[in-house]
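QUALITY CONTROL LOG
STEP: pairwise intake check
CHECKER ROLE: data steward
CRITERIA: each record must contain a sequence immediately followed by its structure tokens, with no blank fields

ENTRY 1 OF 2
RESULT FIELD BELOW
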Amino acid sequence: MADQSFPFIVSNGPRVPRDPSIRTMIRKQAMKDVGIQRKSKRNPGRMTIRQSPVLEDAEVTFRRPAVIDEVASTDEAGRSSSRSSSGASASSLSVRSSSSPDSSSSSSSSSSESDLVEVDELSPPTHEKALQPQLRSPDQSLSGSIRNNLSFNRGYDLVRMKYGIDIPDLSILTNFNVNKGAIGNIWGNPARLATLMCVKRWSYLDYIPSRYGSTECLTITTECVLARMQEVLSPNGPSSPSTACNMLYGRALRSLQKAIAAEETNQDADVLGATQLLVLYELLDPTRDNFAWAHHMSGSARLITYRSSKRFTTDFEKALFSSHVGGMVSLGLVGNQHCYLEQPEWMDVYASTASESLFLTDRSPLAVNLRKTLFRVPGVWRDTGDWVNTHRLFDDKAPPALVKRCEDTHQDLVDWLEDYKNHTVSLSLVELPPEELQIRRELYGSALECSSIIKRVLATLKDDGRLQIEEQNQELVDKILDLQGKPVPPHSWLFTPHEIGVSEMFYHTTDQWREDTTQMFETDRKLAIRKRYNTWSNFLRASDHRDTRPYQH
């Protein structure tokens, strides 16, 4: 029977006991006390499933893993060998990861996302699964393949665990419909951004994880966006103070300004990517005015035109351009200015992003063709306003070239609606994935909304047929309002308020547009055209300038 007696050890002061067996017993007793303490605290020394590791002073070098380069697009053709060598020897960035209760669950959900989609392919769609596509499009496969290889980019893994957010989950915020008109909807209740993280779209954000660490400006700006998103989702969290976001934002601005000032880097795709990320940051910051968003959008446009249309060859560059066009069209419409995208070379760049697929995606020819048509709307609207508000209004007729541009744009929208109808009929007997239904709703709503605008412009240029055109326009507006009572995608709050606002503006001004002016003198009739046009146009543009921000951080 083992001896149960407890041996007493008499301390000999600070001197180490000479007997080795006594020293062994002291160590065992000390470790026993440590074990009891850990058990009483539920063993915090061992990392649990919902606990992220705290990594101190982890060094992240600015480099891109070769394995992920095979999945992502190739390096830009214009990058010289000297710039590659300088990028490889760039200074490292120290990243410290903090424990976040949601970071582990976010990481595990993103890593197993592809498996969940494949299982869902075997089951019919249900209401609960409406947020996840059942059939994977080519764009989603690309995004999934990049994510599955994220483990090779240790730097991005660290920052993702630190903030508990995977940046491709924000892809819907780079969608065509997320533009100046959506800013007020986002700022009205930023917490709703959590509903967007399950909506996946093709975006340049899919390529950010593989490029993280390649350049300083892209790396810092990526962390800046993640920190801001974490603060939006948990504004009272101890690990997301506003001061930290502001400091990162300042560092990102300085790094980007430095890269733009350098001739050897200002045409780099990563620099354009960092600029686009700052545009995304402004969407997430309700404490700043919308001029900051417009400022970064304009800066992005200057970088794009400076690079020229011939430099958009890789998938990453095309994704950057595709995510940029919606905001530029919005700025043109609200700011009463031409959109450079209407130029043929930029039309061709956007057309090159198209990719055939059975179901609709943002890269489907049907989607690309509609948005190419929308590129021309700001210019036609602007030139019509110039004609109405100058002495040229009192000429016999509107400029024939301007009338033809307006008629061509209107006819392209009519033709697109017919193509859309043919597409829906061709899939009428097929079980549709949620993404198909979501994009249908977005495209159809955009087509109706812009058709109503272009019809008002056409009625201004062709006053003789105004009453007939206005009747057709009211039918379009009724269709837009009917859409609001039908099932909508989870992210519809980004664009449906704008559709409703445009429709209401048409109803408020319809009496003026139905006014019979045939008995007026010619000068009075021309002045009525001017008054009618300016009332509608100014009201519509002012509705996009309204700042609805009840949220105070």
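ENTRY 2 OF 2
RESULT FIELD BELOW
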Amino acid sequence: MGSPMQPVQPMPTVMPYAPMAPTTMPYMPYPQADRYSVIEDLRPAIAYGLNEAEGRGYDHTLSEVAAISYLMGLGYDYNTAYATVDSWNLN
């Protein structure tokens, strides 16, 4: 609070957030990746899902492949992402 002798200065206008440019996402290992390289990078996870779905069911396998793909999008390599998701399995 200000005194009568010293009025309160208004706060400067501040944006609540600054949107990021689409190419500067902090977790993208390859900012210029095109759709073909993305699919090629995910090919091991896709192959795993196609082989695993017959034995374990589509819901379970699709969840695993989605989690593996998400971790790969964060920068994990396939083997680390697979091991991480596999460690989450309780059954």
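INTAKE CHECK: passed for both entries
DESCRIPTIVE NOTE, ENTRY 2: The two ends are 61 Å apart (CA to CA).
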